Amino acid sequence: MTPAEIDTQPTQAPDAAPLPAAPVPVTIIEPSHGWVSLKLAELWEYRELLYFLTWREVKVRYKQTALGAAWAIIQPLFTMLVFSLFFGRLAKVPSDGIPYPLFSLAGLIPWTFFANGLAQSSNSLVTSSNLISKVYFPRLTIPLSAVLSGSVDFGISFLLLLAMMAFYGRAPDVRILALPLFFLLSFITALGVGLWLAALNVEYRDVRYTVPFLTQFWMFATPIAYPSSLLHEPWRTVYGLNPMVGVVEGFRWALLGTRTAPGPMIAVSSLAALLILMGGAYYFRRMEKTFADVV
User: Fold this and answer.
1) Taking the complete model, does pTM exceed 0.70, yes or no?
2) How far apart are CA 168 and CA 233, in angstroms?
3) Residue 78 CB coordination number (10 Å)
């Protein structure tokens, strides 16, 4: 082999040392201690899971049902008929100058959303026990999805209320723009109470038996079958400590133009609803560390 041929031969590089493997990211999940933050940013990261859980709640609710979504109309409709017969016709309960069937239905629509959201969210952790004990995700998504799924029923039943308004010749005015705020207030109230009951239901399973009683008592403590105008100030404003009072009276004012505007009652109801939500959220997060073990 000539020197020229030797120069053109490729040189064999020595075996290179293997590169160290890239470190695998490790997430350590530890139980929280004391009063912890709500981690709302983490809840936003799992927004897609929240969507699928909400959609699952809607599908499970109407799976293998004969009437399907018609139940969203049947429940407030038949309750309105009973109220109209016993309270409107027999007891002659005043209705602020509005036909009693329309008066009671305007209160029953937001109330039904609240009552169903309360029932679904309070038992949501127990019914999702398999999911909670196997995977990690923000547990707040479970009761939140239970309440959100009720907005589908609310939208359907709201069409019934609009049809009743057309039947009685009542057209909404500009005050209807405030209606989403009253719906938000009912959502906050349902979620806040639902968080309290959901966390308590994991520890004490007899909580689920108190929910129907609580809902029934709360309904008669809310001006659905009667107007809050029967109370005089300052008791009418104090009555607003029940957040659903502001919701029901707000719905009637925004849709039917009742003379008794909510006024300070809305401020009291909004403050009470926010306090219930904040207290329920922090209590839920504090007890969250025990859910997987107890549920």
Assistant:
1) yes
2) 31
3) 10
